[in-house]
Amino acid sequence: MELSSLRDPVNGVAFTDGKSSSITDSASLAETFDTFLTLLTTQLQYQDPLDPMDTNEFTSQLVEFTGVEQAMSTNKKLDQLISLQNDTQLTDAVGFIGKTVATDSIILMLQGGESTISYDLGGNAAQANVLIIDELGNTVRTIPAPTEVGHHEIVWDGLDDDGDPLEDGLYGFLVTAIDGDNSPVPLVQGTAGQVTGVKLVDGVVTLEIGELEVALSDVLAIEE
Q: Where are the domains of the chain?
C-alpha cells in the first residue's frame, strides 16, 4: 500500500524513508510508528509553551497508522480463511480418487490401453469423426463417431490406424462433425478417466487422471 502520496510529512516525520516507498509489513509499520512516537514526544517536551504545535496533524497521523494496521490485520485473516477453504476443498476432493470423472478438456489420458471420449452434438450430422493426436501433433487414429443429436461416448482402445497399440500417456483429440452441406455442426467435447490423485495448483484444487491434471471446476460428471 502506497502511503507517500497520502500526506506530506508532519512535524518532520515522514511515513517512508529514502530506502523504501511503502510500508509492506507489520514489522516496518511498527518501526515507523515507534520512530514517529519518539520524535513526537521529544517535540512535545521541548515545544514553546507560547507557540504550541498543531495537535490536529499528528492526531490525524495516529489515526492513519491505526487504519493501516487494521487493514494489514484484515488481509492476514483473509489469507488464513482462503488457506482454510483450500484445505477443506482438497480434503473433500479426496473422495474423487478411484472414481471416473468426465471433464471439459481436449486432452485425454490413455490408461491401461483405454480412454473414453465424450461429446454432445447440437444437431444431426452427416459425418462425425474423432481424431486422436500424439504429442508431436500427428493424427494417429481416426474413429468414425455417431452422428445423431445429443450426448455420445466413445471408448478408444489405444490402437493407432495400423492396429498397433500405443503407449499409455497423454494424447490430444478433436471431434469433427459436418452436416449435409459440409457446414460444421455445433458440439461440446470432453474426456473421461479415473482419478488417481488430487492436489493444489496455484490455489486451485486439481484432479489427477494419470498424467492429466484437471481443475475441479472443469468436472462435468462423476461416475462410480
A: 26-94, 97-223
